[in-house]
Amino acid sequence: MNSNFCYILGSGPTLGDFDWAKANQDLIIGLNSLIFDENFTKANNKILAFHDERFLNEVNFINKMKNIKNKYPIISTKFNSQKLKENWDLEILDIEKYIPDIEIYRQYTGEFSMPSDLLRNAAFEIGVPLALGMGATKIKMYGCSFDYGMDIKKEPDYHSGVKFQSFEHTQESAKNWAKFSKERFQLLLNWCTSRNIEIIKI
User: Fold this and answer.
1) Is 36 helix (H, G, I), strand (E, B) or coil?
2) Rounded to whole angstroms, how far apart are CA atoms 140 and 165?
3) Cβ–Cβ < 8 Å for 134, 6
4) First-to-last C-alpha distance (Å) of the chain
5) Which residue, among 27, 52, 54, has the nearest Cα to 121 in the 3D structure?
6) Segment 114-131 mean pLDDT
7) Which phi and psi (to 5°) does residue 120 adopt?
8) From start to end of the chain, where are the E strands?
9) pLDDT value, residue 167
10) Angle at 75 between CA 123 and CA 55, to 5 degrees
11) pLDDT tens-place string over residues 179-196
């Protein structure tokens, strides 16, 4: 495994371009509903990461995490890990305790403050800081679409078809999210370049 290389996988359309066979020896960070993806389940060297607090109330998601048990790491925030323990007796890992490089994580989170709820993007809130904290200097992102949910009022997950009951995006909020995500990605590119970190979004 190349410890300096990392894939971040969302569930948008470009996930279909990802070559699971070639990437099987590299670190793969799957976001959110990748937990339901059969290819992700079969992959080596994987971590499942989620950030959004809405997942704390998604029974299908919770049950899937319980079924995984200790088969591979599940990472989230300190708040989410505490709530899952309190409400569901489910133990997952706190990102700040899991990553070996806490300093670059703190630099990142200090630079990119948390946006309001419906502007959050799992790739930015948990995927990238996790990859950086794991020592990645080259990050390639698949399935991290910035046009998610633009065509209908409430869009199920593009790739897996999983529907989450508590997600609240409308067409207007989805457009705002897409615009904000594109702007934030450009800032992220600049930030990474200044630190000799390469990040590519497919």
Assistant:
1) helix
2) 30
3) yes
4) 21
5) 52
6) 90
7) -75, 150
8) 5-9, 27-31, 46-49, 74-76, 93-94, 138-142, 198-201
9) 57
10) 75
11) 999 999 999 999 999 999
- Between CA 53 and CA 135 the distance in angstroms is 26
**Residue 53: predicted pLDDT:** 87
Task: Pull the structure tokens for residue 111.
Answer: 């630079």
Give the three-class secondary structure for 63: helix
Mean pLDDT, the chain, rounded, equals: 87
Q: What is the mean pLDDT of residues 125-138?
A: 96
Separation CA 79–CA 99 (nearest Å): 16
Q: Which two tokens stand for residue 134?
A: 């794991």
Residue-level pLDDT at 115: 84
pLDDT-derived band at 123, boundaries 50, 70, 90: very high
Cα angle 34-129-185, degrees, rounded to a multiple of 5: 85
pLDDT digits (tens, 9 = 90+) for 135-164: 999 999 999 988 755 554 444 454 455 555
Written as six digits, the tokens of 1 are 């495994």
Contact 12, 145 (CB under 8 A): yes
| Coil vs helix vs strand at 46 | strand
